[in-house]
Amino acid sequence: MDKLSNKVAIVTGSSKGIGKSIAEVFSQKGAHVVVTSRNLSSAKAIVEDLGSYGTDPIAIKTDITKNDDVSNLIQTTKNHYGKIDILINNAGFPLVSEYWDSSFNDIDIEGFKKIIESDLIGSIRCCKAVIPVMKESNSGNIVNISSTPAIAGHSQGSPYTIAKSGLMGLTKHLALEYGKYNIRTNCLALGNIKSSATFDHFDNKTQQKLANEASVKRWGEPIDVANICSSVVTDDFSFVNGQTIVVDGGNVLL
Ligand SMILES: NC(=O)c1ccc[n+]([C@@H]2O[C@H](COP(=O)([O-])OP(=O)(O)OC[C@H]3O[C@@H](n4cnc5c(N)ncnc54)[C@H](OP(=O)(O)O)[C@@H]3O)[C@@H](O)[C@H]2O)c1
Q1: Is the pTM of this model over 0.90?
Q2: Residue 76: which CATH number?
Q3: Regions of the chain short of the pLDDT cut 50
Q4: In angstroms, what CA-CA distances link 180 with 21, 66, 142, 205, 241?
Q5: Scanning 19, 32, 108, 120, which has the fewest C-beta atoms within 10 Å of its C-beta?
Q6: Axis crossing angle, helix 122-137 with helix 158-178, rounded to the nearest 10
Q7: 101 lies in which domain range?
Q8: Hey, which of 39, 188, 196, 198 would you mutate to test ligand 1's pocket, going by the most ligand atoms within 8 Å of its Cβ?
Q9: Number of domains in the chain
């Protein structure tokens, strides 16, 4: 039996990119996956693809910036499966030039708030909703998807860096407060991962330059992240809590 068999896993933002790959790998490994998107038909399309694994995946329309959506996500999942084992906080604000390519001083406060609201508060919102359910079963796993600028800093994309740094603090806090309930919280700090949202944002020359940042001289694939994510939540990692694991092909070294 696979280590994720019969585990119930919510993957936020699993309509495409890294989240979609996490949903696929978790399903392959036997987990019941809850696919979320702000667009129900996008989530349903992924669930249809996952149907072949026979793991009863479901689609739930969720905008993580909305309290009612997140409450509904957790309640519907609990009603359907009777428990929630895993939350992957993957959903994130898209990489857009307006915020990624602009100077700190050219981004207004509303811009900062928008990204912090989805990348940081959205994940906090999901954690707040899921923790009581995990406490009931005295077990759970949360993985927050952060980014290497949260560790090393970056000269652009300041709202993303700030929001993703907050996720590392959130991870440490939840680990220390809820470890005693056998709820583990860890974080993955990603480098350059070839989701179309990120890869296609750059011209060819920049794509090559970014590949060369990694000591392994390539972009990471979404499945690289999915494979690590699917290991971190198993008992193979049962003594790892509150950590940030860098997934960047060896660039930012701790
Ligand atoms: N790719 C990289 O190189 C890289 C590097 C570091 C960190 N990351 C992080 O990895 C995660 C996934 O990135 P990606 O490249 O796969 O991005 P992506 O292809 O743009 O996918 C983002 C996902 O998040 C969802 N989403 C966005 N805003 C949302 C909201 N308010 N509520 C619910 N869902 C929302 C999107 O769903 P819908 O649009 O369908 O609603 C989509 O499924 C993000 O947190 C990103 O910051 C990526």
Answers
A1: yes
A2: 3.40.50.720
A3: none
A4: 31, 29, 14, 49, 11
A5: 108
A6: 20
A7: 8-247
A8: 198
A9: 1
